[in-house]
Amino acid sequence: MNRFLLVFVPPALLALAAALGGWAALLPIFVLFIAVPALDQVTAQDHDNPPGARWMRALPLAFVPAHLAALAYALARITSGELAIIEQIGLVVAAGIATSTAINVAHELMHRADRTEQAVAAVVMATATYTHFCIEHVQGHHKHVGTPRDPATSREGESLYAFLPRTLIGGVRSAWAIEAARSGVGTQNRMLRYGAAQVALLVGIGAVWGGVGVAAFLAQSAIAVLMLETINYIEHYGLVRAETAPGRYERVQPRHSWNSSHRVSNAMLLNLARHSDHHAFAARAFPELRHYDDVPQLPGGYSAMLMLATVPPLWFRVMAPRLAGARAA
């Protein structure tokens, strides 16, 4: 079995949780935060750099209908009147976790040159109520990463809870500024178009599943976005690019991102944690992303690091010596 087929595990778990109800809503939490970190620790890290098979480029597109179907089914179950309140809450959390992994698929597609694939990325980001990310991430974050101009680069000594409001607000501001400079405030402004599409989606959800459906959708979106921005926090913590002249910085290098090649989490996240290569070569497709030995390395996979980041004293204790070592290298 191709290991990247693990990307289908989150929507499958969400559908199973929705079908079974009860304690099954905890399945996505168990898999992402217990099973995956455990498997990452007991399996050898993946340092191989094989050429990616061309058919794997279609994998993200095949994933999208599975995600949309699982999310729709979860909303139908949440609003069915058949579940207790605690079951509804559990299913909302499960949906948020599934959508957070779907964002990673959107991330792969938004970097591609094909406009249809970029449009599909926007559709997936709409399920997290975070369509502006398609603009800010590609044209803002990748340009300014590792500099004070990037709201998605976490600073040394900055806790996750200080970082979140800065990146959430700064990301929206950056996307607006990018679009205003590109197209003004007319019909070509993607922020306006994405906003209209997002409102239309919420109206449609309300028409089908009522106010409870809208509330559940927005709640799972919030969970997905918080997980996304926590991963942003992890990916660049404390790593900065040298200023070569006032307002000008060195070219982005693999050393400006934290790398992780933990086998299971990377397979499920389409090699996202090979982030060093992604930022150095943003157009490189996920199966072709390479491992580097000589760049800052995370001590765990993204699932484990996400949990660690929520406890700032532990995060600083673990990351301080690694950050010092990365700067000395």
What is the H/E string? HHHHHHHHEEHHHH
Helical residue percent? 55-70%
Radius of gyration: 19 Å
Percent of sequence in beta strands: under 5%
Q: Let me know the largest β-sheet.
A: 2 strands, antiparallel
Fill in the keyword field for this structure.
329 residues; mainly alpha; two-stranded antiparallel ribbon; 2 strands; 2% strand
Concise overview:
With 329 residues, this protein is mainly alpha-helical. It contains 12 helices and 2 strands. It has one domain (3-44, 56-328).
Describe the 3D structure.
This protein has helices spanning about 10-20, 25-40, 60-80, 85-110, 115-125, 135-145, 160-185, 190-235, 265-270, 275-280, 300-310, 310-329; strands at about 245, 250. α3 runs antiparallel to α4 (about 85-110). The protein has a two-stranded antiparallel sheet. A hairpin with a 2-residue loop joins β1 and β2. It has one domain. The model has no long low-confidence stretch (mean pLDDT about 95). The protein contains twelve helices and two strands, in the order ααααααααββαααα. The protein has about 325 residues and is mainly alpha-helical. The longest helix has about 45 residues, at about 190-235.
